[in-house]
Write a structure and sequence with these properties.
Elements lengths: L11 H19 L3 E4 L3 E5 L2 H15 L4 H12 L7 E8 L4 H10 L7 E5 L2 E6 L13 E7 L2 H8 L5 E7 L2 E6 L2 H11 L1
Antiparallel strand pairs: 1-2, 2-3, 3-6, 4-5, 4-7, 5-6, 7-8
Helix pairs in contact: 1-2, 2-3
């Protein structure tokens, strides 16, 4: 998947004019890419549109207009774009109560090494940047890349694969199978 280029980023005023339509389209596109993982986690498979939306929204929220700031946001979020043969997913620990969430993030220490995508029964580990790992807890948002074997890519491309996202942590276990529409979206990403 091709990274986001500076030429694709709209100035804040131009973005405001299309924001409602663009956000609505990307949110709809993300719907089949979202996977609920039990009661307290979900994951979203990222693509170019979801990354472009995140860049534009960050520039808007932070009111970033200088070229170095824009370049920084593009570089940061381009890390979410999957390379050839990869899937990219963002995992969210979703606990509204701050006290409960803080306790759970401590209990979920090591979560970064416990996420995988399973294709036809074969697990592909989700890898994150080790610089983001904290020694005494985990974070509420994780960015993962999943490198798939050729057989898995072919099966997803043919839309014959059984695909699931897994969390296998001693304090939290979840496995959710993807439906046909979600698998079609992954096939598009891998094409």
């Amino acid at each position: 998947m091709r990274p986001i280029d500076r030429s694709e980023i709209l100035p804040l005023g131009d973005y405001e004019q299309i924001r409602a339509r663009f956000r609505a389209r990307v949110i709809e596109e993300k719907r089949p890419r979202r996977v609920k993982l039990g009661e307290q986690m979900s994951a979203v498979f990222e693509n170019r549109d979801s990354v472009l939306l995140q860049i534009q929204e960050m520039l808007r929220t932070e009111r970033i207009t200088n070229e170095s700031g824009i370049a920084h946001e593009i570089a940061t979020y381009n890390e979410l774009i999957p390379a050839s043969g990869e899937l990219s997913l963002t995992l969210f620990v979703e606990i509204p109560d701050a006290v409960v969430r803080d306790r759970m993030l401590i209990e979920l220490k090591g979560l970064e090494g416990c996420v995988s995508v399973e294709v036809d029964g074969v697990r592909a580990p989700a890898k994150s940047d080790p610089k983001g790992v904290m020694p005494d807890r985990t974070t509420a948002v994780h960015y993962f890349k999943v490198k798939l074997a050729g057989e898995a890519i072919a099966a997803i491309g043919a839309k014959t694969a059984k695909v699931a996202v897994r969390v296998d942590h001693p304090r939290y276990v979840a496995r959710t199978e993807l439906g046909p529409v979600s698998i079609t979206k992954l096939a598009e990403d891998l094409a």
